[in-house]
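Support reply, case 0932

Customer input (verbatim):
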Amino acid sequence: MSGYFAFQQNGETFDTRDYNITVVPADIDGAPARSYTAYPRGGGNGDILVNTGRFDNVPRSYYILIDHDFVSTYEAICEALLPFSGYGKLTDSWSPDEFFTAYLDGDLKPILTRNEEMGKVLVTFSRKPQRWLLSGENWTILLQTIITNSTPFAVQPTFRIQIKPSLTDETINQIAGLLFPEINGVTPELWDSDFVRSLLRNNRGNDLIFDYAAGRAYIDGNPEYDDGLNSRMRLYRSSDLEWVYQYPAIEPGRNTIYTRHSSWGNTAYVRWGWYTV
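Our regenerated output:
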C-alpha cells in the first residue's frame, strides 16, 4: 500500500508528499535487540553476559518509486534529504499514532528499471528502539495527582511552568525552592536560591522548562540562562535523604505527582513522552 514518510529536524521538513512519487515499506521492522557486553569465560565455554540496560537501534526502510523523469526527481530528493545530519523526528503512514527518533543511515541507493525514466530509491533510517506515542507529545495542564502509565516502560516527562508577569519579589523569594513537581517521592530542587530568584525576576512572563529525559532545565526562548540553570540543578531523593543525579520517572502502573504551583497562581503543563518498543 502506498503511503508517505516525513523527516523533521531543526525546523526543516522533508515530506515525500511534496513529490509526485510512490512510497512503500522496504521491510517490516523487527523487534529491537537487547544490548549485552560479553566477557570470555576463563576455563569454560560460553561468555559472561552483562545487560547494558539498553536496546539497539532498528532499521526502518522505504522504497521511493519513481515512474517518470527518474534522474531529475532523484536528484531533487537527494538535494532535499541529504543535508539532514543526525537524529530527527520520523513519521509515516504505516504508524499513524507513533513517531520515531531516527537518522538517515547510508546513501540513497537508486535502482533504474527502464530507460532512465523509471526506477526506485532505497531510503534507510536507523531509529531508536522507542516507538513514541503521539498521544504523549501534547502539552496538557497538570491537574491530576494520580497518573497511570499504561505502557510497560518508565518515562521521564517534560514539565512547562509558567512564570506569571505579576509575580512579586516577595512571592519569588517564597517559591524559589519549590519549582519542581515531585514524582513518587523524588523531589528535584535547584540548590542555588539566589540564582533562581534572579532568574525568575528577569524572566517574568516566560516559561520554565524541565526536561527530565534530557536532564535539562531552561527558559523557553531565552538560552542565556541554560548553562547556569543546568549547573545549579540537583535532585533530592526524599526516601533515603541524599542528593542524586538521576531524574525521576513515571513508572508503569500507578504514580503520584505533587505540584505546588497552584498555590502561587501559576500553571504547570506536562508532556508525558509515552512509548513502546
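We compared this against your earlier run and they match. Two observations from our side: The first strand starts at residue 5 and ends at 9. The radius of gyration is 24 Å. Please reopen the case if you see a mismatch on your end.
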